[in-house]
Request: fold
Amino acid sequence: MQISNRAYQKLADQLAPKSNTPVNCMKAFAIGGGICVLGQALKNLYLSLGAEQEPAALLTSVTLIFLSALLTGLGVYDDLAKHGGAGTLVPITGFANAVAAPAIEFQTEGWVTGLAVKMFTIAGPVIVYGTVTAVVYGVIYWLVA
Reply:
């Protein structure tokens, strides 16, 4: 059966689930804000326990990464993402989820071809482009300063 592009698009539009953008934005804001509030609470906790500013920030990041990977492994982070959408992409937790989720999914394929390879499917480009951007920025800063 041959179908024109216009007819296909019309059919796809009719069958596609409708999204409620304002509600989705509020959910993303609430869940993303909740993750940020958790991060700030952790930092305040570490500061109150006597850590200095920089180590407290480092401990906060490590704790958020650990919690994100743990919740991904338990399947909780995916449920949170279903409701929070882009709000769960808060950089550090979203990145930890992006590394852990494919690794968990493909662990049955073995340590190297499953776990290790899939772990860097998403994270690899981020690491590469992040490093390249940092080098370019550093060179520009060195030339200007």
The chain is about 80% helix and 0% strand.
